[in-house]
Amino acid sequence: MVIDADVENQPWDLKTFSGRFKYFLWVTDPRTCLTPEEELMQARQLILNIGNGKKSSLSENEINFARKLYESAFHPDTGDLQNIFGRMSFQMPGGMAITGAMLQWYRSNTAVIFWQWVNQSFNALVNYTNRNANSSLSTTQLFISYVSATSAALVAAVGYKKYLTKTASPFFQRYVPFVAVAVANCINIPLMRQNEILYGIHIHDEEGNIVGKSRLAAVKGICQVVLSRIVMCAPGMLVLPMIMESLEKFKAFRRISYLHGPFQVVAVGCLDMFDEHYLYIRKDSLHQFWKDRLYEKERRTRCTSRGWSEIRRT
User: Fold this and answer.
1) Residues facing 213 on adjacent strands
2) What's the half-sphere exposure (Cβ side, CA atoms, 13 Å) at 56?
3) Which residues of 189-227 are buried (b: 16+ CB within 10 A; e: fewer)?
4) Which end of the chain is less congested by CB atoms within 10 angstroms, N or C?
């Protein structure tokens, strides 16, 4: 049977809770990280062929699986194969391991510094891998972003830990990783996407046509990313310290200290998994006032030799 598939429309309604949840589980399936590159390239070619109007004799399930591999492993703008550690499908195992380690080894400054450096290096890799292809950063800009975020995380972690040592109980030191992560996200993400703020990002009408560039849309999107990154890590990093503090009062749990790390890794995954889909939105819309303002500028500038230059400064 020949399938005439539509690879553009989502199988789920991303405006609904259940739709976002199902799509999130589907596209970030960690098992796709184990797929050989050859199979990924075959999936890419299949999806591109269908997108160009070619029909396929494969079943609908096989086509959907190929689409799953394509969307989880290839950059949405360039179509290039992403490195495995920067893919969103690696976020769950990678983020679980690093967050669990930060929560487990927080007592010494050496451990705090090491795991904050690992976390910021991982975040920088993810941000670079999923960057907007239309707003490429220079090597210098990338280096400055990485160093700034890492330095901010280390200063926040060590400084907050030192402050708590003098003014609060040891329990509150368990929240040092969360404070450091939140501060670093507020610095790292805007710096990594600074060109979008400076020059704007493409915006589309309801039919998907590019109508110009907008810095407002870039700022709005980046603010949402910063907020979502902090909120996504909050359940595990805020709730788990209380759980660990309670469990460590039992002698039996203290005797198996070698399992505390793996326990926190798994617990972080369980606490965070059901919160990330809330903030997952593939496309967002500008307020109607700004839409109207942009379209009015487009109408005016089409009559001048400046063309789209005026819109690009929006």
Assistant:
1) 202
2) 20
3) bbbbbbbbbeebbebeeeeeeebbbbbbbbbbbbeebbe
4) N
